[in-house]
Every structure is written in structure tokens, then in C-alpha cells.
Specification:
single chain; TIM Barrel; 11 helices
Length: 244
Amino acid sequence: MRTAEENHKRIIVALDFAAEKEVLRLLDRIDPDNCRIKIGKELFTSCGPALVKKVGERGFDIFLDLKFHDIPNTVAGAVRAAALELGVWMLNVHASGGRAMLEAAAGALAGADCRRPHIIGVTVLTSLNDRDLSQLGVRDTSREQVLRLARLCHEAHLGGVVCSAGEVATLRKKLPRKFLLVTPGIRRPGDVRGDQKRVMGPVEAVAAGADYLVVGRPITRAENPRAALAEFVSAVSGNSPNPY
């Protein structure tokens, strides 16, 4: 059974901005006790490591979403830099980088004296569907490919994977409970899907077995981000009178 604090911390707010002032304006309106923060490629490219540190100084746990995908030695170095220099709570690598790369990432902090982030693998992007995979030469369905890559991540000793909510139930049955499932593409019925093709509501995702839910525009572009975040927190904690 999760505590109320753990339920609050299950929402990861994706900072879908390109400018620091927009980020800081949002952070002034939400509480680090109620969520964690995801910093992705656009924001990191625009503002760099300095902004990651500023967000951390405000008390937010940070999921650094840079999806490292390179030769094993390079990825291991990137993991060490994220942990030692930035102190992030979570980071990710592309599972399609292969076993050697995944194992290098998982072992990059052996013997290091630092806070050890969760290192998780990206399986199949939620912007892709079966037709997209077919165009890339992948004959399996998205669910079959996600399961294959998730098993590879587990065998390589990563802490979990990113997957769509539609794959969560299957992965929860096939992999150990402590293996983390981080789910983007979370939308309420009235929310715009944007470029997400495989989406689900927060209550459904948690019921299926998701550990953390990544939510971007439904919170960051809301007229009242604090209230929007509270709705998602209430939904995943089972306190919502009208869950999505």
C-alpha cells in the first residue's frame, strides 16, 4: 500500500517549454511535495545543465529525459555526469541501444559516492503505433516490441522502463513488481492528445500497474496549473469524486 506522500509523488510534470522564465513561472505555481519534474531535450538544449540545477534547488526531484543512445562508453559517461554533476532522481536511455549499452548504463555508477538515480529504458515512443513500427522494419506489434525491450532492460539490470499505459498491464504480469513502469501519454477525456497516439487516463494507468505518470500540457498549459496538478494527484490517490 502506498502512502499519501508516495501517491502525490507519482505525477511527473513534463516541462514542455523552451525558455527559463516560463519554467520558473510554472514552478512558482506548483508544489515539489506533490510532484516530480521532467526535463527533456528541448528545454535542456535551450537552457543547459544550469537550469537543471536551478530546478533541483527549488526542491523538485528531476527526471532527466534525454534518452541516451550511443556507444556503451559514451552512455556510461553521460549517466555519470547526470548523477555526479546534476544529482537527478531519474534518467533514461534508449532500450534499442542494445544489451552492451544498457549494461554500461546500469553499471556506470559502481563505486561512485553519489545519489543513485533510477535508470530506465525507453521502449517504444508513445508517438508510434504499429504502422509506424512496420515502416521501420519492425514486424512485431508495439506491445510485442515493448515487452521484448522491457525484458532486455530487466536482464541488463536497469530499474524500469518507459512505456505507454496500454502496455502496463502486460509488463506488470511479466516482470517483477519492483521494476518501475513510467507512463507518458496520460490524458483526461477532454485533453488534447497532441502527438501522442497511445494514451490513457490516470486512474486506468495506475489500476493497470503504472508507478509514475508523466503529464505535460494538461498541467503546464492549464489556466491554473496548481489546480490541474491537484486533480491528477487526487485521481491517482483514489480521492477524486469523479475520477478520469
